[in-house]
Amino acid sequence: MAEIGGEANGIGRVLVVDDDQAVLSSLKFALELEGFTVQTYASGTEVLGDALLPGAGCLVIDYNLLEMNGLDLLDDLRRRHVELPAILITTHPNRALRARAAGASVPIVEKPLLGNALTVAIRAALADPRGPGLGMDAPTTH
Prior knowledge:
globular; phosphoprotein; alpha/beta; 6 strands; 5 helices; disordered C terminus; Response regulator receiver domain-containing protein
């Protein structure tokens, strides 16, 4: 059976990690309207416990998680051989964070998430087999 707005339509799966339930709900709603299949996680620990991650399409990770930051979560996933493209979302990234994200080839999309910057970044991640966080240049979007 075809899943409306999901992988059956060839758009892709997006995993969103944010400890703010309001952000999770609004991103899930907005991204599903764009045709993505969305799975949400309220913590890095929750993501690390998901055995289905290797088959997913793209990670959208908040930098400021409670038990670990988003780049540390991504490092942990990479050590576990989960090689999904990733996008970091955060407010006011400082120079050190920008440098660390660029070093990991992870683009940053700044909050508040206005316009279509996140959707554009997700589509780019899903279109390139290397994707952001896997060798592509990491643009920062405001």
